[in-house]
Design goal:
Layout: E1 2-7, H1 15-28, E2 36-45, E3 56-64, E4 70-76, H2 79-103
Parallel strand pairs: 1-2
Antiparallel strand pairs: 2-3, 3-4
Helix pairs in contact: 1-2
Length: 104
Amino acid sequence: MQIQFNTDKNVTGSEELIASATSLISEELSRFSQQITRVEVHLSDEDGNKDGVNDKRCMVEARLAGLKPIAVTNHASTHEKAIEGAIDKLKTSLTKITGRLKDY
């Protein structure tokens, strides 16, 4: 499973943030690793340089072998919380989709 990070002009993707997010993604999505070919993480700060509530956005897109990509978005007060929330949403979506595939 390949993990790719993208940030907008208002976000500096520190090595520490990317390393911890990569570890979290690998751990949390490990049971889907056979189906997922690539995960793309898009981080942005919707208010730019201004401080705001829940202005950090994380969009995670998982590309599954033979299926259309699945994308989820989460907003939070920090990028770390936004990533965690997006991963939780993605796990829920992947569980539903893989469960449906097993039914066929």
